[in-house]
């Protein structure tokens, strides 16, 4: 039942494993859009391969031999192993010596000398007489045995017999008292036997002394038997057969009567074996008991014969007692054999093949048969070792474990073969189906296949044809599974590619080349640099693509290279440049005619060489080409300043003059160098061009730096200005970022111009000044050097130079600190106004404000910089940040001043008449004069001609001229205010004339009314299109609103002029006596006027006496200017 359950469990595991593989394969096939049965084939393939690997592993393990059982190693055992490492090597050397001795014999005629004769191991406890028995058997073959050269004892003795090879092992290998080192040497010997011999060991001669069997205790015999059993188990574990064991009881001459028996037997019978082979497996104790009883019966039957032969021999009594003496061995022999050959469910049972009894040699008895005087020979050994055991090869039987291994291996092999056969059939079917799918997909290519010579639309048709081939190629490349010899789709793919190459050459490439040769090439030398470069690089890049294609590059790899620009050479192909470049790339990648491709490369190289020679080999056109077609962004003010405004003629650095442009120029020159065969000549041309190009880069950056201040024009509004001001003193500020960029782009170039030295020095000073410790160290070092220099005569120039460097560094530190303070103050408008007011009131040379300190530090820093680049560049780099911050502060100050004006001046006039406002603002203690003496005082100064603006660094606060004009008429205003104390009336004569409209109007105005309100009464002038006149009396104290009404049909159009200035406003509105009112100025009546066809209405008056009124109105208006400063 237990076996049945084990079989069922194994079957279930295999079934579940197969089901899992099947489902996994089907799922994978569905994911990659394959038929589900392909997944089943993959599962079968996986299963077959797994079984094959498992079979190989089983064979490998069997070939290496199963590892012998290792005993747990203690610390002492490991120490012993390390100490006996030399002994382990000696085992290998001694085994190799024996093998070498065998290989030197004639056994090689029989095949492998190691397998020609059977091998036996001789085991037994110490003192069993093994070596003596082998020696006295007198069976050694006449061949030289290996010689042991070491001082210690040999690991074993080689015994080469005529029909066998014996390895006589020391008794320590089979003794329970053997050390760990001996056990490891035994393991090494077992491993060597399994490795070097194809056949397993043919048997074991287990020798045990007769005296040991009756003298040793039962426990000692058990220990010895178990030790031997362990060694035999280890030996069987490395092979695949049950090792036959021949139990030989030696030293039987110690049994009473055994020696007398040998003297009484005929000499020929002494060489025969005494014992028997075990024919049928049986329990060891039964075998021993049966054998002992048989020998006893035999001896008892021989008693009369032996006693008759030795009637006069005094040994009769001993021979008579020999059967009973043999019986004394039975108990010990059963004990030993039972433990050594007993069955166990945990391990294989050794094969007890036979039990034999031998004795050491005795002195030959004197008599007529004595042939050699005193001779010694072993008893019952010669035939045992010489013929019986070597001939007993039928005793080799496979172990149960090996039989199970063989059955399992055959089952695995059968299952793997079946699985692989089914998988192979399925994969062959799938490969055939895939080939059919690819061939069927070619049907769509027939419709787009280009016809030879059809130029119109040929490129478009070729593109569709190419896409079809790419799809076929993708299907072939996506063939994960082996084709198994079905390559029809690959052959079709190659045929299609060849056809594509022929069609592209005839339809597209030949016409393009002819066009280039006939029209483009003759015009290239005289064309612009950009056009010239575009066409030259077209040839160069075509040549480079062809060169790479000769190295068997794929279209995808060629796509990473610079592509030729086919756009200027489209001609009749009616295709885009990108499409033509793609077609060409696939053409050279798929073209298998390497000779034609090589000819095309040579032709293109020749064309490039001719075009360059047409312009004398000069390469200046590279910059124009890269600037237009290189896609290299130039350096603009926006990168540094930001901002949202754009303006024309802004300074820039062209893309080819930037660092990225430098790399592009180098790459372009590399492309040219790769194309041209004469590298040395091009190297000279390249060097001259790079020298010229370096100068162009320096020039471009110098112009950009000199005009860099224009970047503030990009800033719109206070927010953008403030953002730039906040970072002006940092590396992110525009000017310092420019210095860093110049140093990074061109600052490392050798033999730089003088202006670049200014940039480098300023950058160095700024970096050192940003670290206070660095400045202090430099200053201290400078002082020490100055002290040393001044002590030496004639070193005044060096001392002055060091003093100048220290002073410049200190100026740089002071300047950066001042800039940082100004940038921090720029965040607050009130703080900016305070700093600005302080700076405008003091002398910049001696002032204590941050602005004055910054101006002085900037001046000292500019003085310390090299002036090779001119004062303009130094001013741009050094004064630029300060000028920007000063401009920002001026705008902030102007905005603050405007806010104070509105708060302190304009707000006080709300709801006041002109006379009241004039008195309030321009009176003796008016608000205007308080404002001039207060917030505006730092920025204004009085003179005989009036007020003027103060300046700082040549610029004043952006105060509007209206304020100066307003302050300039203060005396006249005061006089007018004084005159207001007396009542004044101004007469104005107004004569009404007919009111008119546009000519095509359906209805014309028929009445016009002008009304002036004064002291609760009104003065009116009604004009009904005939002349009428009236004199209006106007007084600024008593008069207010003026109303103008125009009647058109049923409509009344009204125009109001409110307030005390109503009449002056009306007079200014109808200046000259005539005023035309468009219809849209009367929005309520606009639609009605449109229906009447009225577009404009013109009123006409004759006005006299208005000049005094208007002049007095202006003076008494009291209207202060709304805007006095231009801020944001």
Automatic annotation (TrEMBL):
Alphabetized InterPro entries for the sequence: P-loop_NTPase (IPR027417), T6SS_TssM-like (IPR053156), TssM1_N (IPR025743)
Superkingdom to which the source organism belongs: Bacteria
SUPFAM superfamilies for the chain: P-loop containing nucleoside triphosphate hydrolases
Transmembrane segments: 12-30, 36-57, 412-433
Keywords recorded for this protein, A-Z: Membrane, Transmembrane, Transmembrane helix
Domain Type VI secretion system component TssM1 N-terminal: from-to ranges: 181-414
Protein name per Swiss-Prot or TrEMBL: Type VI secretion system protein ImpL
């Amino acid at each position: 039942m237990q076996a049945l359950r084990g079989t069922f469990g194994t079957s279930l595991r295999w079934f579940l494993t197969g089901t899992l593989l099947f489902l996994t394969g089907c799922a994978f096939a569905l994911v990659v859009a394959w038929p589900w049965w392909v997944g089943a084939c993959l599962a079968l393939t996986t299963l077959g391969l797994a079984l094959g690997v498992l079979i190989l592993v089983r064979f490998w393990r069997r070939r290496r031999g199963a590892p012998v059982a290792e005993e747990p190693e203690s610390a002492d055992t490991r120490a012993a192993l390390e100490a006996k490492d030399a002994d382990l090597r000696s085992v290998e050397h001694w085994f190799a010596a024996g093998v070498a001795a065998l290989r030197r014999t004639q056994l090689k005629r029989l095949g492998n000398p190691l397998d020609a004769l059977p091998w036996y191991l001789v085991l037994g406890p110490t003192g069993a007489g093994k070596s003596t028995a082998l020696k006295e058997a007198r069976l050694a073959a006449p061949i030289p045995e290996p010689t042991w050269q070491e001082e210690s004892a040999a690991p074993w003795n080689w015994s080469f017999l005529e029909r066998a090879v014996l390895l006589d092992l020391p008794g320590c290998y089979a003794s329970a008292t053997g050390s760990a080192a001996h056990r490891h040497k035994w393991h090494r010997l077992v491993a060597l036997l399994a490795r070097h011999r194809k056949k397993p060991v043919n048997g074991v001669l287990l020798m045990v002394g007769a005296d040991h069997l009756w003298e040793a205790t039962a426990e000692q015999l058990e220990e010895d038997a178990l030790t031997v059993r362990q060694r035999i188990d280890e030996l069987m574990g490395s092979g695949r057969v049950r090792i036959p064991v021949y139990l030989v009881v030696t030293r039987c001459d110690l049994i009473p009567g055994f020696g007398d028996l040998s003297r009484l037997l005929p000499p020929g019978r002494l060489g025969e074996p005494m014992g028997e082979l075990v024919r049928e497996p049986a329990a060891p104790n039964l075998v021993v008991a049966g054998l002992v009883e048989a020998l006893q019966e035999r001896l008892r039957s021989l008693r009369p014969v032996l006693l008759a032969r030795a009637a006069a021999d005094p040994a009769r009594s001993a021979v008579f007692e020999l059967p009973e003496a043999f019986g004394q061995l039975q108990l010990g022999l059963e004990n030993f054999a039972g433990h050594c050959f007993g069955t166990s469910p945990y391990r294989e049972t050794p094969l007890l093949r036979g039990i034999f009894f031998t004795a050491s040699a005795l002195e030959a008895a004197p008599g007529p048969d004595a042939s050699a005087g005193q001779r010694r020979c072993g008893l019952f050994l010669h035939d045992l070792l010489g013929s019986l055991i070597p001939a007993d090869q039928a005793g080799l039987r496979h172990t149960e474990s090996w039989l199970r291994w063989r059955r399992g291996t055959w089952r695995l092999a059968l299952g793997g073969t079946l699985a692989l056969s089914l998988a192979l059939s399925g994969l062959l079917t799938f490969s055939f189906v895939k080939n059919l799918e690819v061939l069927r997909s070619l049907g769509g290519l027939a419709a787009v296949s280009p016809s030879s010579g059809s130029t119109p639309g040929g490129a478009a048709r070729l593109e569709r044809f190419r896409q079809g081939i790419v799809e076929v190629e993708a299907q072939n490349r996506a063939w994960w599974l082996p084709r198994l010899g079905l390559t029809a789709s690959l052959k079709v793919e190659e045929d299609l590619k060849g056809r594509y190459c022929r069609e592209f050459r005839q339809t597209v490439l030949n016409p393009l080349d002819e066009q280039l040769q006939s029209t483009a090439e003759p015009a290239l030398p005289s064309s612009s640099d950009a056009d010239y470069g575009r066409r030259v690089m077209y040839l160069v890049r075509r040549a480079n693509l062809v060169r790479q294609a000769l190295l068997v590059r794929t279209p995808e790899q060629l796509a990473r290279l610079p592509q030729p620009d086919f756009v200027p050479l489209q001609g009749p192909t009616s295709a885009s440049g990108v499409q033509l470049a793609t077609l060409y790339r696939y053409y050279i990648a798929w073209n298998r005619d390497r000779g034609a491709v090589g000819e095309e490369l040579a032709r293109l190289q020749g064309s490039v060489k001719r075009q360059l020679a047409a312009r004398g080999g000069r390469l200046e056109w590279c910059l124009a080409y890269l600037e237009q077609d290189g896609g290299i962004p130039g350096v603009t003010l926006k990168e540094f300043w930001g901002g949202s405004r754009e303006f024309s003629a802004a300074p820039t650095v062209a893309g080819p003059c930037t660092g990225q442009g430098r790399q592009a120029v180098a790459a372009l020159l590399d492309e040219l160098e790769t194309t041209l065969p004469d590298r040395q000549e091009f190297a000279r041309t390249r060097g001259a061009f790079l020298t010229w190009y370096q100068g162009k880069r320096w020039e471009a950056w110098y112009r950009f730096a000199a005009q860099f201040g224009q970047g503030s024009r990009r800033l719109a509004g206070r927010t953008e200005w403030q953002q730039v001001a906040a970072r002006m003193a940092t590396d992110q500020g525009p000017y310092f970022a420019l210095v860093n960029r110049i140093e990074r782009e061109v600052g490392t170039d050798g033999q730089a111009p003088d202006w670049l030295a200014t940039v480098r020095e300023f950058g160095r000073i700024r970096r050192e000044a940003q670290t206070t410790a660095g400045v202090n160290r430099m200053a201290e070092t400078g002082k020490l050097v100055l002290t040393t220099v001044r002590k030496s005569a004639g070193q005044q120039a060096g001392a002055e130079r060091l003093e100048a460097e220290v002073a410049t560094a200190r100026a740089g530190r002071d300047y950066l600190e001042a800039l940082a303070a100004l940038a921090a103050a720029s965040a607050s408008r009130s703080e900016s106004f305070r700093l600005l007011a302080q700076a405008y009131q003091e002398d910049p040379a001696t002032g204590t404000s941050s602005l004055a300190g910054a101006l002085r530090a900037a001046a000292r820093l500019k003085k310390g910089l090299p002036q090779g680049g001119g004062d303009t560049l130094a001013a741009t780099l050094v004064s630029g940040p300060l000028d920007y911050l000063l401009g920002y502060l001026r705008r902030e100050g102007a905005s603050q001043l405007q806010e104070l004006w509105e708060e302190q001046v304009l707000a006080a006039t709300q709801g006041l008449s002109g006379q009241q406002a004039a008195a309030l603002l321009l009176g003796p203690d008016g608000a205007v004069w308080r404002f001039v003496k207060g917030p505006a005082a730092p920025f204004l100064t009085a003179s005989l001609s009036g007020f003027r603006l103060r300046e700082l660094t040549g610029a004043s606060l952006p105060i509007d001229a209206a304020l100066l004009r307003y302050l300039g008429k203060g005396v006249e205003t005061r006089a007018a205010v004084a005159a207001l104390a007396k009542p004044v009336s101004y007469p104005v004569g107004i004569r009404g004339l007919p009111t008119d409209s546009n000519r095509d109007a359906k209805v014309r105005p028929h009445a016009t009314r002008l009304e002036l309100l004064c002291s609760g009464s009104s003065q009116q002038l009604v004009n009904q299109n005939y002349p009428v006149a009236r004199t209006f009396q106007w007084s600024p104290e008593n008069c207010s609103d003026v109303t103008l009404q125009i009647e058109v049909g049923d409509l009344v159009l009204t125009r109001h002029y409110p307030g005390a200035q109503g009449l002056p406003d009306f007079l200014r509105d109808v200046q000259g006596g005539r005023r035309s009112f468009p219809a849209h100025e009367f929005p309520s009546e606009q639609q009605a006027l449109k229906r009447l066809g009225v577009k404009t209405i013109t009123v006409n008056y004759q006005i006299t006496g208005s000049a005094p009124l208007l002049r007095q109105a202006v003076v008494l208006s009291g209207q202060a200017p709304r805007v006095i400063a231009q801020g944001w």
